[in-house]
Fold this protein.
Amino acid sequence: MAEKKTGKEIHCPVSKNCGGCDYVGIPYTEQLKRKEQRVRDLLSSLCPVRPIVGAKEPCFYRNKVHWAFGHMGTHLIAGRYAEGSHRIIENDHCLLEDEECSKILSDIRDLAIRFKIPSYDEKTRRGLLRRVLLRKGSATGEVMVVLVLASPVLPGKKGFIKILLEKHPSIKTVLININTRSDSMILGDKTICEFGRGFIWDELLGVRFKISPESFYQINHDQTEKLYSLAIEAASLRPGDRVLDAYCGIGTIGLCAASSVPGIRLTGVELNRAAVRDARDNAAANGKQREQDTDKKSTFERARFLAADATKYMVEEAAKNSAFDVVFLDPPRAGTTPEFITACEKLAPKRIVYVSCDPTTLARDLKEFKKHGYAPQYAVPVDMFPFTDHTENCCLLERV
Ligand code: SAH
């Protein structure tokens, strides 16, 4: 098992076959240097780049873990897919995965063997158990288990789930997802809740978040809190500000901002309908929790979340002559669109806080923002994914 030390080299017995970690064997301090340099190379011609924010604990950070199931001869095996392939790498002690999640997954594999549950074969499209997805609320300790099957009937289901729950009381919900797809999507369209409420709770910066199986949620809890704190600080919000959280997922950035500056008027926009439902529930639940604090309560209760394409929403709002004081945007790796940026100019926020998981598309979009009257002030890389070459970045833009 990997040592919890940052200055030393950390090795993994399967790293050569797995390919999931780019920086295994490289001391964490050196990983940070390399990542910071890469961001500097891409962004320093556009704005100052502040020192990278590293993790206190670089191992075992993934709170979302999934294993694929397959077979070697007649023997059932489970693990991560090797990078860029569907070859299963068995490793019960991955240095990225939350250790409790790894333990639960290896117990599920052993139970599947005991219950003689056949794994799914992608070539013949026969068999049953495809994958198991786990999510854990790092602050609450709540765990969600999603068994991904090729068809709905799991032999011995009641006994299987009962044993699992007895062994791991932190499991608060168990779901079965039916995936008959032939692509590499983890989840299919149909999910049935077999135990619990169908979601788990977590907490970020004192705000509670409901997480459904399909919703996006950042995978490194502690680094997410640092990233969001930086984003909220950059926004310099004031009560009364009209704030947009674009690509908002389950509303995390906006609702954390609402908690830190009561009185803001928050709108979130997000494409995934399940995430939007979660965002609305999160606003309501956090409002309810703050019965005593009327300012905070009404800030949460006034928050609105819309299911829409972010660009389409921006273009429509610009056509209506709407306005925002501050815009947060946190798009997927592909970045945002030129139309989003053009519409931003019309909506005329004083500040834009761009949270990006890809510095290459961030650099491209910053150049476009510059053409539309927004000057990048600074960027801060945050190491959300130690041992991989990905970096999150928080960049402040101001209207010139
Ligand atoms: N800010 C959130 C989510 C960031 S991930 C957080 O920190 O957790 C990016 C989000 O953008 C995902 O939830 C994804 O579903 C959403 N998304 C992807 N394309 C989109 C689009 N065209 N319009 C709006 N949201 C989109």
Remarks:
- Confidence is low (pLDDT under 50) at residues 1-5.
- Residues 216-218, 247-249, 252-253, 269-272, 275, 309-310, 330-332 surround S-adenosyl-L-homocysteine (CB under 6 Å).
